[in-house]
Amino acid sequence: MRLYILQRLLSLIPVMLVVAVVVFFLIHLTPGDPASIILGPEALPEDVEKLREELGLNLPIIQQFFIWLSGIFKGDLGWSLFMDMPVTEAFFSHLGPTLSLAIFAQIISIVIAIPFGIIAATRRGTAVDQFFMVFALLGISIPSFLLGLLLILVFAVKLHWLPVAGYQPLSAGLLNHLKFLILPAITLGAIQAALIARMTRSSMLDILNMNYIKTAHAKGLKERVVIFKHAFRNAFIPILTVIGQSFGTLVAGAVVTEAVFNLPGLGQLIVNSIQRRDFVVIQGTVLLIAGAYVLINLIVDLLYGIIDPRVRLNRK
């Protein structure tokens, strides 16, 4: 198992290198000059050129890339052109809201999706099954920004139950912290709940048709024991895969939701950096998010061996 973990960690290096190359060159090939934005539209051309030289923006793009890459290997992702702080500090200062939102949204999606998927599978072909699958289809189809605006209209503007937007850190109290996250978490978790519910239903249907499940029924075991002890445990690996991928998606894809609810997370950091042409922050933030996504998939892969001993034996 240790050798397997080491191999997987080493395999992250080429993946992250490809991400670094793609992100760097895509950002630098887009129009816009950070020096011009920093000095403003009334700056003299010679002042702009002098600042470009100070920032190293006048160097060939290949040279800029290798300077940035060498810094990464030293643990230095660069210095923000606008915020006057290291990229890692800017990243972690905005990570809290995004991480809280992603965890809360994931909990909501799992609590909703897995029971819906199990019920739909055990009631296959009935009106209950069709109702839950229509719900899943709606969850996938409705854009997150539209769902967010609808939730704001109903629960914040009309009913005044929850705040329209904003954020309170965990230090302000758990209830106050969650109050500002309920609507964005539902918005962000709805799509993931639909995907997890569909996978749960599909995986459960495959297992429920197995002979050992029919044998368990023939032995007179209670339906609850057959469903949760024998069927769901064996159906959980593909469900876990979707959950892991969805959590990575929640962390990486919260930009729109954070914009709708004015959350000071990584999405807001990326959007502001794009508007300012703060290349260094965009590169570092996207690279760290990609690394987190790959690491989450690795953790999910390692959890397979805990859930299913056959996976552990195959690795040996």
Automatic annotation (TrEMBL):
Q: Where is the ABC transmembrane type-1 domain?
A: 95-304
Which GO molecular function entries does the Swiss-Prot or TrEMBL record give?
Answer: dipeptide transmembrane transporter activity
* Protein's cellular compartments: Cell membrane
- Record-annotated membrane-spanning stretches: 9-29, 99-119, 131-157, 177-197, 236-261, 281-307
Q: Which CDD domains match?
A: TM_PBP2
Q: Signal peptide span per the entry? A: none
Known PROSITE patterns for this protein?
A: ABC_TM1
For this protein, the record's Gene3D superfamilies field holds: MetI-like
Output the InterPro entries linked to this UniProt entry: BPD_transp_1_N, MetI-like, MetI-like_sf
Could you tell me which SUPFAM superfamilies the record lists for this protein?
A: MetI-like (SSF161098)
Q: How does the record say this protein sits in the membrane?
A: Multi-pass membrane protein
The alphabetical list of record keywords is:
Cell membrane, Membrane, Transmembrane, Transmembrane helix, Transport
Q: Name one GO cellular component term.
A: plasma membrane
Give the family this protein belongs to, as stated in its UniProt record.
Belongs to the binding-protein-dependent transport system permease family.
Record's protein name: ABC transporter permease
Give the organism the record lists: Siminovitchia terrae
